[in-house]
Amino acid sequence: MTTRRDFLKAGTAAGAAALVLPKLARAESLATRVATPEPPPMDPAVKELLTEALNAAKMGGAEFADARIGRYRNNFVITREKQIVNVVDTDTLGVGVRVLVNGTWGFGASRDLTKAGVVAATREALGIAKANAVPAADRVRLAPATPTPDGRYVTPHTTDPFTVPIEEKADLLIRANTEAMKVPGVKFVNSNMFFVKEEKNYANTDGTFTTQTVLRSWLPFAATAVAPDFSDFQTRTNVMQPAARGYEYLLAAKPVEHAQQWGEEAAAKLKAKPVEVGRYDLVLHPTHLWLTIHESIGHPLELDRALGYEANYAGTSFIAPPQKTLGQLRYGPKIMNIQGDRSQEGGCSTIGWDDDGVKPDTFLLIKEGVVNDYETTREQAPMLDWWYAKQGRPVRSHGCAHSDSWSDIAFQRMPNVSLLPGEKDLSYEDLIAATDRGIAIIGDGSFSIDQQRYNAQFGGQLFYEIKGGKITGMLKDVAYQMRTPDFWNSMDMIGGKKSYEMGASFFDGKGQPGQVNAVSHGCVPSRFRNINVINTGRKA
Amino acid sequence: MSTPKSLFSRGSALSSGEMLSKSEAQAFLERVVKLSKAETIAASLGGGYQGNIRFAANRITTSGGVNNSQLVVQSGYGAKHAVVTTADFSPEGIERAVRQSEAIAKLAPDDPENMPLLPPQQYQNVDAYFDSTANLTAEERAAAARTAIDAAKAAGDLAAAGFILEGSGYSALASNTGMFAYFPATSANYQLTVRTNDGTGSGWAGADHPDWKQIDFKAVSDRAISKARASRNPVAVEPGRYTVILEPQAVGDLVQLLAFALDARSADEGRSSFSKQGGGTKIGEKIVDPRVTIYSDPADPQLLGQPWTGEGLPLGREVWIENGVLKELQYSRYWAQKKGARPNGGLGAVKMAGGDTTTEQMIASTPRGILVTRLWYLRQVDPRTVLYTGLTRDGTFLIEDGKITKAVKNFRFNESPLFMLNNLEAIGRAERVAGTEAGGNVVMPTIKVRDFNFTSLSDAV
Q1: Do the chains contact at B139 and A481, CB–CB below 8 Å?
Q2: If you ran DSSP here, which 8-state letter would residue B104 be given?
Q3: Among A93, A449, A481, beta carbon nearest to B377
Q4: What ipTM was estimated for this complex?
Q5: Is A448 within 8 Å of B276 when comparing Cβ atoms?
Q6: CA–CA separation, A401 vs B328, rounded Å?
Q7: Inter-chain CB pairs, A–B, below 8 Å
Q8: pLDDT tens digits, residue range A191-202?
Q9: Alpha carbon of A342 to those of A29, A124, A279: distances in Å?
Q10: CA of B89, closest CA in chain A: separation in Å?
C-alpha cells in the first residue's frame, strides 16, 4: 500500500552498491507547496440543517452537541495485466449528530437531509444518551476549544482526481502494467487507482462552523513473477505511498517509467538467497520504517488505548499508566524525537479542524527518547491536566478526533506521527556504508503486533545483504521480530533532513463499529543493532 | 459527469423508512432498471438500522443508532461496464446515479473478462430475520451492557470493556435480465473483554446470532470474568512447537485464512498453495487430516447466511475439503466458463464439521500443551504455504499432566492452517463464533493439534 513521487539516482556514494540498490522515489519534486485553490464558504443549506440539529439538541437538554454533514466519495479504477477489471464510483451523504446529556454521549445518523430527518437523528441521539445515563463520577468533561465561526480548508492540490477522465486513468495503469510484463518471469500485474474526496461540514454548540474538502490519492501496484516450474512465486508491491494530494502526485511518481524496474525486482526475488536466521543490524529505509513507526509508536501513544478504552478490540498499550510514563519512560535513544501533527502537506491525517471542532497543533510525543505526550481529543485532554500543569502548558486537545463517515461516531485517531531527522546530514547510503554485517530493507510487507504493542514481526518488499559496508546481494524470506522498547533503544544512526520521506496507510483500523483512518508517517532511514531475523520460507 | 450545484438542498428520505419489504424493494429496483439507457443494468439495494453501544473501564462510552441505505448501479455496453453507488434516493439522485454509471461505462475500456448478467435464478429460503432483534430499544441495549459492567464493578478488581452491535436490514438485487433477489436479516453481536485491575489478567468471550434472544449476556460475562481471573500473573514458557488446544474462536481465525488460498484462478496460474508443481491444481488430493471437512452453506441452521452472491449467483452447500481431500476451489463465473467448471461463491459463511471430543477430554489427554482462547493480528507471511503470523490473546494457559496448571504469557505464532489441520489430534463440537478477525457467519469446533509453531513470547496482557 504505497505511492511515491520523483525518483532519486541512488548509490553513487556507495560505490559497488550502486549496482543493486534500487532507484527510490523521493518527495523532493512536490516538497514545495502547491497552489491551493481558494476554499469555498459553507453551503447555506447545509449551515441551516446543522443549526437545526444543534437547536434540537439544546432543546432536548444537551449541554454540548455537534453535527456533521458530509459527502464521502471514492473512485476506483481497477486493472490487471492488459485489461480493465472495473471502474467504481461510490458516493454517500448524510448527517451525524452527537449530543452530550448529563455527561453521557448519544449519537444518531441518517442520510435523510431534510429538516425532519436531521431532527429525527438528533432525537435518536438524545434518546440514546438518556438511556445510557452514567453516574456523576463517570461524566465526560470536555477541554475548551476556541470557536471557529467560519473555518475553511481544502487539501493542497493542482488537479482534483475526480475531474480526470476514466480513460486517462485506465490508460496510465495499462501502460504501467505493460512495462512490468515485459520483464521475463513476470506473469501477473494488478494495479489500481484509488481516490478519496471528503466534503465535510461541521458545527458545534460552541459556535464553530467549518467546511473542509479533503483529497487523497493512491496507486497500488503489484507485479508477480512465477518460476517456470511453478515451484515459487514472488511479488513486488507497495511501490508508492498514498498521500493527501491531487492527481498530479500520481503523475509525478512516473509509474509507467518505473514499472519495468518493479517487475525486475519481482523477478529478482525468485533468485534471491534465503536468509540465514540470526541477529543482524538492520538499515530500514523510510518506505519500510513508516509502518514500524505506525504500529510500534503511533498506536501505543493513543491515550484511549493507554487508559483501557480500546481494550475490547485494538487493545491497550504498554505505555501506561500515563502517571508512570510521561517524562519518565525511555522509549529510545536521545536522537529519537517523534512528532504528532495534522499539518504536514501531503500527510493523510492533515486537516484544518478535527471532528471536535479543534484546530490541531504540532506536538512532541517523544522528546529525546522519553515519552512526552499522547494523542488526544477534547474528551481526553483533561485526563492529562496534571501533566500539562506541571509543564506550564494549557489543557487543550491535540485535535485527533476523527470519524470516517457521517454515519460513525468521532473518536481519537492517529495524527501524522513522524520520526524527525537527525542533526547529521546522513543518507540511506551512508548508513549502509557504516554497517559491517546487516540487512537493508525497502518497502513495507507483512506486519503483525500484539494488543499492547510489545511484540511485533515485520516483513518487507526488498531485502539486501550488507557486508563490510556494501550491498552484496539480494535476500528473501526475511522477517524481523522485536520487542518494541528494545528495538527503538537499539537505534544508533538516523538520516538527516534530506533523507526524510513520508509513508502512509489508507486503512488504519480501530474502534467498534470499526472505522478506518488514513495517516502518514514521515521518517528518515535508520539503523537498528542486533535484531532477531527469522526465515519465513517453508515447504507446502 | 455533471454534479449538482448544491449537494444538500434536497430531500432523500424513503417515505416508508429504511427497511423495505420484498415488494417495496422490487418496486424500487424496477423503477431504477427502467431508467436505464444502457445495454445492461444491474442494481442492488440495501438498507436498515444499526444500533450499537460500547463500554470500557466499567462505563458506557459511545453509543449510536444509524439509519442508512445504499443503491449500487452497474451499467454495461458490450464489454464495458462501471459501477456507481449513491445514498441519494430522490428521483433526481437515482437518475443521476444511473446516468453517471452509463457515462463512465461508455468511457471505460473493454473488460475482456466481462460476463453477461444472469437470467432469473432460484434461491433457497433462509430465515435470518428475527423480530426480537428488529424491535430492540436503546434501553434494552443499555441493560444488556450493564450486565457485564455491574458484575465487574461489584467484583471490585475488574474492568469490563465490550461492544454490542445489532441491526436489521435487507439486501436486494435486480437486473434488466429479469433477475431478482431479496434477503432480509437481523444481526446481534456481543464481544466482551474483562481485565484485572492489576494489569496481569485479561479474558475474552463473545456471542453472535441473528436472534437477540439467543445471546446470553450473563453467560458471556461469567466466561470473560473467569478467563480474566485465571489468566492473572502469567509465566513465561519457552516458545517452540507445542500440542495446542484451540477454542472455536481461534480455529475460525485460522480456517478463514483459507478463503483467499481457495481461489481457483490463482491455483491454475501457479501462484497459490493449491497450485500443483508442473501445472494444474491440487483438487482431488489429500491436503489435511481425513477427519477435516469444511463447507459453506447459507441454509445451515448455525450459519444463516445470504443465499446469493453480489452477482445473483445462488449459493448452496459447497464442500471445499471433505475428509481431508480438496474437493473444490472457488471459481468466479469467468474462470469457471474458461475452465469448464461450475461457478461458486467462495468460502463466505463457513463451517468446519465438529467431532465428539469434549474440551475436558482434550485437556485430560494432554501431558503438556497450551490452551488458546483467541488469536490476534493475523497477517500473511508467505502465500506459498498460507503461512500467517499472529498472537494469542485474552486467555492462554499451560496444560500439564492432563490439567490446566497456570496462565502463560502470550505467544507469537508463524503457522499455516494447512499445517495445523494436518497435525490434528481431536475435534470437538462445532459452535457459532463471535469475533474472528475476518468476521461473518462462522461455525467452528474446538480442536487439538500437535506441533503448533510458537516462535516468540509477548509481554502483552
Answers
A1: no
A2: H
A3: A449
A4: 0.89
A5: no
A6: 47
A7: 293
A8: 999 999 999 999
A9: 21, 32, 37
A10: 9
